[in-house]
Amino acid sequence: MNFYKQASDILEKLQNRKSSIKSLTLADDVKEKKKMYALICNTLKYKGVIDKIIDNSQLLVVEKKLPRNIATLLVHDLLFSPNGLKSLSDGPYKKSILKHEIRLKCELVKLKVKLKVKNNEDLINPELRNSETTVPRYIRVNTLKTTVEKVVEHFKAKKYKLEESNDDLGDISPQTIIKDKHLPELLILPPNTDLHNDPLYLSGDIILQDKASCFPSFICSPLIDSHVIDACAAPGNKTSHLSSIMQNSGKIWAFDIDKKRLELLKKLTRKAGCENIVAVHGSFLEENPLDSKYSNVECILLDPSCSGSGMVSRLAENTQDQLDSTQKPLVERLKNLSEFQERMILHAFKFPTVKKIVYSTCSIYAQENEHVVRRVLEQTSVFELADRKDVMPSWSRRGITSEMGDDEEAAEKLVRSIPNEDHTNGFFVACFVRKSVQCENNVRSKVDSMDNSIDDSFIAPPETKHSLKRKKRG
Predict the structure, then answer these.
(1) 189 or 84, which is more confident
(2) Do the annotations mark residue 232 as ligand-binding?
(3) Is 303 assigned to a binding site?
(4) Which ranges of 90-195 would DSSP assign to H, the alpha helix?
(5) Mean pLDDT, residues 310-326 taken together
(6) Comparing 81 with 314, which gets the higher pLDDT?
(7) Annotation-wise, does 233 bind a ligand?
(8) Is 235 assigned to a binding site?
(9) b/e burial code for range 277-313 (CB count within 10 A of at least 16 → b)
């Protein structure tokens, strides 16, 4: 029964939005991680149905000592698990459920008749059904420890077949590994491939990270020896990605206000071989932008708290009301989140040497995405959105034009991803750059274009060459 008690605690934390499914079910104190993850995910998918069955059967009216979450888990196993409650040892909670077994099963049948469905799976919200299975297993190669080629060879030795590219990520053949066409250090495997015991995962040579989660660090792309701030860093996948891009050079200040999550960041980044990270327990908002230690910071990564509505693993946590951004409780929550997100960006604008700020959320809601971007742009004359050519230009899904005040050019500078359609988590990224930097980049781009357009047979006189070089430097 300890397993179900722990599962009940996890359900309560999810309902209070204290963490994510994966963080809670894969925690160190969970012994049967795979079993726990499956139970929580499947229970949440059926939770709306289970709630109706429990209420209609008056189970908790009769069994007053039976906790609601325990009842939810046991009713799930009784009605929707192939093995029912056979694996559960006898105890008062099991007896309470079995006492009402016939009534509970009758309520399930009545519900299926009412909804005109034959199979249990048809009771699940379509947005949740098969959501996990449509997203491939993405692995980011940790170039601090190995290479893409070595990782590919590792999987080939395990009888995987390499595909250089595949446009249909919704249908990946078993035992297939694919090179991602947007991110050079990302490899793609079939959905639900379990790599938790793979030696490359255990050694930190590969990192299990959704493709969209790799976008912010990739767009940031700090230079070697640069100084960077990761403002909301835990659990640390984006931080270790930055470290990898920087080849362990320079310095990354990684902030998090949650001490436990910061300890997790330290653990994961050590495993990844990162040596340029300064973990800071505290709020980025309380840091002084004029502090001399930040005098060389050129890039800030902002991935602040958000609704998490784009996370495939969290879709099951949301009822239909919670997915509808017009519902009052969610409207209030999105308002609070977006105000916090806005404060984070505006604070980042105050760092005098910063040239690039990458803002991201794992949210599908415009309130946390385009609306936040519009508001902060109205409050700055120093920063603007980076041009599309500098923000994953080959990625086709961009910002929503109508949510950017019908400014199509601005929307094109933003990046979005949608679960199922893009085969990633739902994500949003905006890249702000200091206007003087963008101007420099545009001049360089024009000069490079001029250089490339000069015919090879043409030899410019010395003064022309000198003029072009001077323009390049400027």
Answers:
(1) 189
(2) yes
(3) yes
(4) 92-99, 101-115, 148-156
(5) 56
(6) 81
(7) yes
(8) yes
(9) bebbeeebeebebeeeebeebbbbbbbbebbbbbbbb
Q: Per-domain residue ranges for the chain?
A: 2-123, 137-208, 211-439
Determine the residue type at 372. V
Q: Distance (Å, rounded) from C-alpha 224 to C-alpha 438?
A: 20
pLDDT in tens, 428-473: 999 999 998 776 666 555 555 545 544 443 333 333 333 333 333 3
* 57 half-sphere exposure, CB direction, 13 A CA radius: 27
Q: Which residues are catalytic?
A: 362
Distance (Å) of CA 406 to CA 385, 418, 433? 16, 20, 22
Q: Strand pairing partners for 253?
A: 229, 278
Residue 445: per-residue pLDDT: 57
Alpha carbon distances (Å) from 156 to 144, 177, 189, 201 = 21, 9, 12, 16
Q: Is the pLDDT of residue 372 over 50?
A: yes
137-208 architecture in CATH? Answer: 2-Layer Sandwich (3.30)
Q: List all residues 6 or more positions away from 108 whose beta carbon is below 8 Å from its beta carbon.
A: 49, 53, 79, 120
For the domain made up of 211-439, the CATH class stated in words is alpha beta
Q: How far is CA 188 from the centre of its chain?
A: 16
Averaged pLDDT, 114-132: 75
Please check whether residue 338 is in contact with residue 368, taking contact to mean a CB–CB distance below 8 angstroms. Answer: yes
Lowest mean pLDDT among 35-39, 50-54, 433-437, 440-444: 440-444
pTM, 2 dp? 0.76
